[in-house]
Amino acid sequence: MSTRWDDVRFEFAVEWYVLKRRPGEWFLLSGSRLAVTGVGLLVVSATIWTAVAAGLVPLEEETPILFLLFALISGNFTLITIVVSISQFVLARHLESPGEIRGKMDEMVGYRREVGATTGRRVVPVSPSEFVLLLFRTIARRLDALSAELTTGSVAGEEVDDAVVAELEALVTGLGEHVEYVIALLTRPTTGLNYALFATLNASYEQDIYDAWRLRTEHAESLPAETTDALDELVECLEQIDVARRVFKTVFIQSELASLSRTLLAIGVPVQIVSVVLMLLFTDSSGWTTAPATLRLIIPTIVTAGFAPILLLTAYILRLATVARRTASMYPFTNQVGA
């Protein structure tokens, strides 16, 4: 129990850290989808209750209420059925034969060996967050080496064109800020797959690789050998990061679809039951017999709850669409405007 509580507390600390630094990233990516759904429900609830309190929605006629409940019930039934069916179809496509599984395992083992050679570690972590953290710490060392070359090393001691030095400084500074943020995020006590993936989605590594290679090839004669070697090592690390985030993206999407189906059923089915029961209360021949004050309390509450399934789906779609958008391009190409 204590371990589970520690995991929840650590995850909350990480989400709070991201929320303070980058609220937009929290809303689109790292934030709990239930929390994002809760924010949406608060907005819907505040809007409905404000309209009721202001007298804009008197809730005196039964027919509009019945139409609204019918629309929510039928819409949610369709939504839940379609989403769960699509999710199960996508997940079923990942059923594999033993030979396919063995082939992918061999590829992953080979990739881990490449990362070990790149980072100089014989044993590579199995935790996604620690795995990505290892790569980013290696990138940080490569950037430190380039920075040293710019300030006190061979670049500072030789006649290198000022424009080339400025481009090197821009590469080191821009990528260094991102690497610093990722390391600060991943060194917090969390072992989840999500943060390992999200941390790699805030930069265009294809553009960084292109900039490093262009400096390496176009100015190879003017740059010292130490600098070109450092650029080669930096490119190698960035390529490994790009592979890692695509591997984690595949696993993440499968996990998200399964989580969406499970959560949508857990929330949608009770909402449907309550909505149907409320609608059946109008079948009395004498009509709605409850006091108007009670009606003004029950109807807004049930209508707000009826928005929960669509808001939950929206929260998950925002995250999946953001992940897909930021990993749409594949090295050596990029979809960044102006790249």
Short description:
With 339 residues, the chain is mainly α. It has helices at 2-21, 23-30, 33-53, 62-92, 98-119, 128-151, 154-157, 162-186, 193-198, 205-218, 225-280, 292-306, 308-326.
Tell me about this structure.
By secondary structure, the chain is an all-alpha fold. It folds into two domains: 164 residues, no CATH class; 157 residues. The two termini are 49 Å apart. The longest helix has 56 residues. The mean pLDDT is 83.
The computed structural class is mainly alpha
Radius of gyration: 27 Å
The string of secondary-structure elements, in order, is HHHHHHHHHHHHH
Biggest sheet, open or closed, and with what strands and sense?
none
Number of domains: 2
Low-confidence parts: none
Range of strand content: under 5%
Shape: elongated
Distance between the termini: 49 Å
Number of helices: 13
Tell me the total number of β-strands: 0
Task: Tell me the helix content.
Answer: over 70%
Q: Mean pLDDT, nearest integer?
A: 83
